[in-house]
Design brief:
The chain has 122 residues and is of the alpha+beta class. Helices cover 27% and strands 28% of the residues. The chain has a four-stranded antiparallel sheet with strand order 1-2-3-4, sandwiched between helices.
């Protein structure tokens, strides 16, 4: 199973595991961007959301999104901090249109990108 169940999502975050979500692509006249969201627990027990936009530098043989170029290299991440898991999740759902049933463990975002490539190349 690729996607985390709601209880797995909260449990992972509570014990300090990062979760991610593919937020899709945006097509512009001269380029395509990819959007991702990460939620992580900090050492002070707060939670951080990290929104990143990448240029779509990939293809079927190169799916490591972490190696793609940032749309905004000087400030690649939009960070927000929260006191609780629930606040971080609510912010993600409200501000980034994240889906509660589409979070994945770290590294699985590449599978999301591979799925996107199948539709992009049609």
């Amino acid at each position: 199973m690729r996607y985390l169940l709601p209880e797995q999502l909260r449990a992972n975050l509570s014990i300090g595991r990062t979760v991610e979500q593919w937020l899709g692509s945006a097509i512009f006249p001269n380029y395509v961007t990819l959007r991702t969201l990460t939620i992580s627990k900090e050492r002070d027990s707060t939670y951080t959301t990290s929104y990143v936009e990448y240029f779509d530098d990939g293809h079927e043989e190169f799916t490591d999104m972490y190696a793609f170029s940032y749309l905004h290299p000087d400030e690649p991440e939009l960070l927000n901090n929260f006191d609780s898991v629930e606040e971080a999740l609510q912010f993600a759902l409200t501000n980034y249109n994240a889906k509660p049933d589409k979070f994945v463990n770290p590294g699985m975002i590449e599978d999301e990108y591979r799925d996107y490539l199948k539709t992009r190349n049609k």
